[in-house]
Design brief:
Blueprint: E1 9-13, H1 20-30, E2 34-39, E3 55-59, H2 65-74, E4 81-84, H3 100-128, E5 131-136, H4 140-143, H5 150-170, E6 175-182, H6 188-191, H7 198-206, H8 216-227, E7 238-241, H9 245-256, H10 259-293
Parallel strand pairs: 1-2, 1-4, 2-3, 4-5, 5-6, 6-7
Helix pairs in contact: 1-8, 2-3, 3-5
Length: 312
């Protein structure tokens, strides 16, 4: 039985742990792809042993460029697509207590790791004239996070910039690059140590338009779309998968805005705008006066008379 990804070779990092990376490996292998599953240690990939035949385990620290290149080359496969999902698992730490080693590890795994894997994969993609790269970011890049720390949010934000730069550079070679920013996803990692409980996830779900938090398969489905040949016109895009969390936030802000606040703002605008345009009119008069008194004033500096209608 054939699948839509038959003949495709996709390298996925962060494949261990039963979360987003694992879901992507399972979905891609089920669709017919050969998946190079990357984790820091080989024993972390035992959760994928039932997928033997479609999954090629690759043990390498993504922050080590030489090891990444050697491990990828050692598979003997021509990778045509790459997904970067690796991230260290640290608890939240206030910035004034944030340790240098934690910062270095988060930047190295998330940001430098993405760069190392991309540099290892793009030569084959360029030769083939085809490639797909998907970077897994986070909603923390847009709104910060109380569940992780400054290194995580900073590194995930960096992936957005990397996505845009790579899309610009690699587009002429038939390679697309996109970023996905998951919102609240229910994974083993977030439940570990009581970081999230079922009650807290239920409260989060109640605030979302879709009335549920995400699951790893939600992210896997979006990744498969971006990896597909049909997505060849999508590049440099950051896709927010958050169950409409941005809409919920906007609605909450609108609902809590009082009428008196709006009235006050309207009144202040009424007082402010005449002052602004009065100053503007003075500037125009001064410009015309200088023009009359000096024939050497460049005409490009003269502001023509305009009628301005302001509605408040």
């Amino acid at each position: 039985m054939t699948g839509p990804f038959d003949g495709r070779v996709v390298a996925v990092s962060g494949a261990a742990g039963g979360g987003i990376g694992t879901a992507m490996v399972e979905a891609l292998s089920a669709a017919g792809a050969t998946v190079v599953a990357n984790a820091r240690r080989a024993d972390q990939l035992t959760c994928l042993q039932d997928l033997a035949g479609r999954v090629v385990p690759m043990a390498a620290d993504v922050s080590d460029r030489d090891r990444v290149e050697a491990a990828l080359s050692g598979t003997g496969l021509h990778v045509d697509s790459l997904v970067h999902c690796a991230a260290p698992d640290y608890e939240h730490m206030p910035t004034d207590m944030y340790e240098d080693d934690t910062w270095a590890a988060e930047i190295a795994t998330i940001l430098t790791g993405a760069l190392n894997r991309v540099r290892a994969a793009i030569p084959n993609m360029k030769r083939a004239g085809f490639g797909r790269i998907v970077l897994i970011g986070s909603s923390a890049a847009r709104q910060g996070t109380l569940g992780r720390g400054v290194g995580y949010a900073t590194a995930k934000a960096g992936l957005v910039g990397m996505c845009r730069q790579l899309a610009l550079e690699l587009g002429p070679y038939g390679i697309t690059v996109n970023c996905i920013e998951p919102g609240q996803i229910d994974t083993p990692r977030i439940r570990r140590g009581g970081r999230r409980t079922q009650a807290s996830l239920d409260r989060r779900a109640a605030a979302l338009p879709v009335r549920r938090v995400g699951i790893p398969q939600d992210i896997a489905g979006a990744v498969m779309f971006l990896l597909d040949h049909a997505a060849g016109y999508v590049t440099g895009t950051t896709l927010a998968l958050n169950g409409g969390a941005h809409l919920a936030s906007a609605a909450t802000m609108k609902a809590t805005r009082s009428t008196s606040t709006c009235s006050s703002l309207r009144h202040s605008r009424t007082r402010f705008l005449p002052s602004v345009f009065g100053s503007f009119a003075t500037y125009i008069r001064l410009g015309r006066h200088q023009h009359r008194s000096s024939s050497s004033t460049p005409r490009s500096l003269i502001v023509p008379r305009r009628s301005v209608l302001v509605s408040v």
